[in-house]
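Chapter summary example: a protein plus adenosine-5'-diphosphate.
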Amino acid sequence: VRRARAEVGTLDEAGRAAFARGLRGRHRRPGGFGSQTRVLAVGSGKGGVGKSTLTVNLAAALARRGQRVGVLDADVWGYSCPQLLGVRQRPVAVPGMMLPVCAHGVRLMSIGFFVEDDQPVVWRGPMLAKALEQFLDDVFWGELDVLLVDLPPGTGDVPLTVLELLPDASLLVVTTPQRASHEVAARVGRMAREQRMPLAGVVENMSGGPFGSGGGARLAAAVAAPLLAEIPLDEQVCDAGDAGVPLVVAAPGSEPARRVDALATALPAVRRSLVGAALPLFVNGPAAS
Ligand code: ADP
């Protein structure tokens, strides 16, 4: 091809409605029946342990490996994925559907897009559940290999709703090395076990330095899940987050970025439930062809 010509215009109302109908026709809930998307919920006991930072870095690392990745920022108290991915624009809405914002190869939808001027989200359980449902059903994610859900810390309404809406999700629990963090995180792990949500594993973040290390290993033992990564405490992680460029993109050769990249390859395979799956059953033997 030597030359190409592109014409850019805006859709009129009928065009937008037709476009939205087209999207809806092709839409499938990620992680829903028949979907091949692996859903990983990222949780922690406390806030401030680096759960959102890890979520966006892991997402960007998976995207760099050619995976189609979505991030659903459901951290109602501390939504920060738009900032961490340097996203300033809002999602595009067409009648009845929204398109996620794409940054660093990651498709993002955040509860933060729907609150004005950094206001706290004061929605109660049923409203949160409805919002999460809309994020899955009314957002055109397209085909995704992985959907990461950034949960609020603790064992509140959102993690339970995510479990109900995404029964095939597994949980990645993030802790710092400190006792105050891993002991509280163990409760999140136990909640998951009680609800029969598989535990993908544990990540120790802010490892080394004044915090020491070993909290991730203790948490992993307490909840009987593998310790998948130890990410060092490193100011580059923090600076990259403030600049809106995940460290795996800004400095892929740095130690924390290499650890996150190793985590991206070490993620355990999905264990899918058979609910809604087509089984290879046939009557009177396979059809002759
Ligand atoms: P959470 O989602 O658990 O509330 P954040 O991802 O918002 O936590 O991180 C809290 C703070 O810690 C942020 O300022 C972030 O830049 C910083 N941070 C996260 N991980 C690291 C790390 N490995 N080294 C240094 N700072 C980190």
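Key point: The chain has ten helices and ten strands.
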